[in-house]
Write a structure and sequence with these properties.
Length: 134
């Protein structure tokens, strides 16, 4: 491995770690924004040094395991229990849990994300309105 490639690889790891820290500590929800902030903070201009989302998610799991292990398990359990309740309520739309609650990377600011399947988005809206869900 050439020195430049090795340096880029190290920088990519640092970028993933900083992106993960930003997501957990600052509540940034999307990988792109976290990457952008990390690049500015680390003065990274080389696009080859930008980690992909999977690398950031791995760093996110590592960060949470290292710094928030005790709270993470409880938080994740609570979010998943809530997700199950919501999925049962929305069963008509065959909900699927996606995102950080599913992967285990949910931080303190994470939202529960569900994919719903309906003929039209209006079907979901009408269902929610009928059940007085804001």
């Amino acid at each position: 491995m050439t020195r430049r490639r090795r340096d880029t690889s190290r920088l990519k790891i640092l970028m993933a770690q900083e992106s993960a820290r930003i997501m957990v500590e600052e509540g940034v929800q999307d990988f792109r924004s976290a990457k952008r902030k990390a690049a500015i903070r680390l003065a990274v201009t080389d696009k080859a040094a930008l980690p992909d989302n999977a690398e950031i998610e791995k760093a996110l799991l590592d960060y949470q395991r290292l710094f928030h292990a005790d709270r993470q398990a409880l938080r994740l359990r609570g979010l998943r229990e809530t997700a199950v309740e919501i999925m049962l309520f929305l069963a008509r739309f065959r909900p699927r849990l996606v995102g950080p609650v599913l992967s285990g990377a949910a931080g303190p600011h994470a939202n529960i994300r569900l994919h719903l399947f309906a003929d039209t988005p209006t079907d979901v809206l009408l269902f929610l309105m009928e059940h007085r869900v804001p």
